[in-house]
Amino acid sequence: MNLIRDLGAGVIESVERLGRASVFFYEVIAGAGPLFRRFFLITQQIYAIGVLTLLIIMVSGLFVGMVLGLQGYNTLVRFGAEDSLGLLVALSLVRELGPVVTALLFAGRAGSALTAEIGLMKATEQLAGMEMMAVNPLTRVIAPRLIGGIVAMPLLAALFSAVGVLGGHVVGVGLLGVDAGSFWSQMQGGVDFYDDIVNGVIKSFAFGVTVTWIAVFEGYDAVPTSEGVASATNRTVVYSSLAVLALDFVLTALTLGEV
Amino acid sequence: MKRPAAGSREATKNSNSDRADGAVVSLQEVVFSRSGRAILSGLTLHAEHGRITAIMGGSGSGKTTILNLIGGRIRPDSGKVIVDGQSVPDLDTDALFALRKRMALLFQTGALFTDLTVFENVAFPIREHTRLPEEILRTVVLMKLETVGLRGARDLMPSELSGGMARRVALARAIAFEPMIIMYDEPFTGLDPISKGVIAKLIKELNQTLGITSIVVSHDVAETCLISDYAYIVGAGRIIGEGDPKTLQRSKSEHVRQFMEGLPDGPVPYQHPAGDYMQDLMAPRAK
Questions:
Q1: What are the extents of the domains in chain A?
Q2: Which of A42, A75, A157, B38 has CB 3.0 to 4.6 Å from A204, enough for a Cys bridge?
Q3: Cβ separation of A129 and B105 shorter than 8 Å?
Q4: Looking at CA atoms only, how far is residue A124 from chain B in angstroms?
Q5: Distance between CA B267 and CA B235 in Å, rounded?
Q6: Fold for domain B9-282?
Q7: Beta pairing partners, B238
Q8: A131 contacts in B (CB within 8 Å)?
Q9: Contact between A16 and A9 (Cβ < 8 Å)
Q10: Among candidate residues A64, A98, A103, the one with its CA nearest the CA of residue A245
Q11: Annotated domain spans of chain B
Q12: Which parts form a coiled-coil structure per UniProt (chain A) (predicted)?
């Protein structure tokens, strides 16, 4: 009986939190209008969330591209199709690995930082102080971070894919002797702008909304203690990663239209 | 009129009705509970215009809850919270924010924005609510910082300030718009005697020079009695004593005496409610 009771309580709590998170998202977006007159608040966040995440994204992209080049070459060479290495690397990155790996790294680096920052602002009464100064923290603190994350994520994913392609080129063409002309021409001929690139951008946009929403909500909803902020940060990384992987399946199924 | 002895029920009733007329802030029969636990049960108090009203009481007695009710951060279960003639719980968001522009709350921690300098912290509310030219804004901020004696610290970050300095910066920020009411939440906690003296002097001076209504919530009896015009003592969610500080210090009420003299045992028991001690010790572990 206790198990059923606990399960029921867990489900009710989860639904209740999801409801609160949805209302929170609506309130942030609905109150974001005045921000566009103070655009510097958003650009500050694009810098903090996007530019400061560039290094980890680019280094990861480079290595993922290099591994793809190595693995792809070893498979393709068995069929004498190593000239298609550029296409394989590009499609893997643009359609799947770029948006997904970027989102996972984004959740680990920028998402956790957002939650910790907002949670600590709550714990040190900075958000309460703002409210008492008649400043709405949803508009002044949360909305710029949410918009900054949503803008930054697709740009980071695009850079991840671009650097990954270069990594694949370094390994495939530079080390393994694939013809450079074939590498680029196969890629140019096989990658479709709408089916591949636009779908990748849509995915990374959806991941950006999801990860940043989870991060800012967890921070805002954190119990205002050291332990509460630590738990919230932990939840951001776990929930974001799971949400990205699940959403990736849904979006892939929708774009391929095969499920 | 003969004033009844402070701390008695009669005293509370009569002085409340006297003080309600000139009150800027008025709480009437306020009941507030959280997670089924009663925090305030029928509390009534008034803060008069231009005076320093102290609210004293032990930790967890609901003092900060009173400030949160006045600031509209929480709503009472029942009772009235009136500020400047407006019923705070009934205000919509816009009206509440308009009222908050005329009141300030100084948090115990200062609540300074850790990513902004001292200057930018004080400038924050002005930037948010006005479009003052940068030169005028600079002058206003420097004047506020000069009032609290920290003009020279304008380029420091909050992490570089001592506890007392942080509270003075928060005070400069609080008076940025010269509010009608300033509420101080434990302004003396964790400060050295010099800093306590400085904060007490600032509260008194600001009250006199700006003619504002001040509400000081504190459990620091000595400092609070020194600056306040009228004091309430909160215990068990209600007012257990009130009067001017000198009268309170002479009170015969056991509740008031226990708090004013810092007695470890009395009407507020030393022991948290628990079952029989021996029975507890002898009980099997699993139980």
A1: 31-256
A2: A157
A3: yes
A4: 6
A5: 10
A6: Rossmann fold (3.40.50)
A7: B235
A8: 73, 100
A9: no
A10: A103
A11: 9-282
A12: none
Which of A125, A130, A133, A223 is the best substitution to test chain B (most B C-beta atoms within 10 A)? Answer: A133
- Contact yes or no for A133 and B125 at CB 8 A: yes
Q: Which residues are bridge partners to A130 per DSSP?
A: none
Is B3 part of the contact surface with chain A (CB cutoff 8 Å)? Answer: no
Chain A: give the shortest CA distance to residue B89, in Å.
15
Tens-level pLDDT at each residue, chain A (259 residues): 789 999 999 999 999 999 999 999 999 999 888 888 889 999 999 999 999 999 999 999 999 999 999 999 999 999 989 999 999 999 999 999 999 999 999 999 999 999 999 999 999 999 999 999 999 999 999 999 999 999 999 999 999 999 999 999 999 999 999 999 999 999 999 999 988 999 999 999 999 999 999 999 999 999 999 999 999 999 999 999 999 999 999 999 988 776 5
pTM exceeds 0.90, yes or no:
no
- Cα nearest neighbour of B68 on chain A: A132
Q: Does B249 touch chain A (CB under 8 A)?
A: no
Pairwise CA distance, residues B183 & B187, whole Å: 10
* CB distance B83 to B70 below 8 Å: yes
> How far, in Å, CA of A179 to CA of A85, rounded?
10
CB contact, 8 Å: B127 with chain A?
no
Q: Which residue has the tokens 């929170």?
A: A24
Q: Are B272 and B81 in contact (CB under 8 A)?
A: no
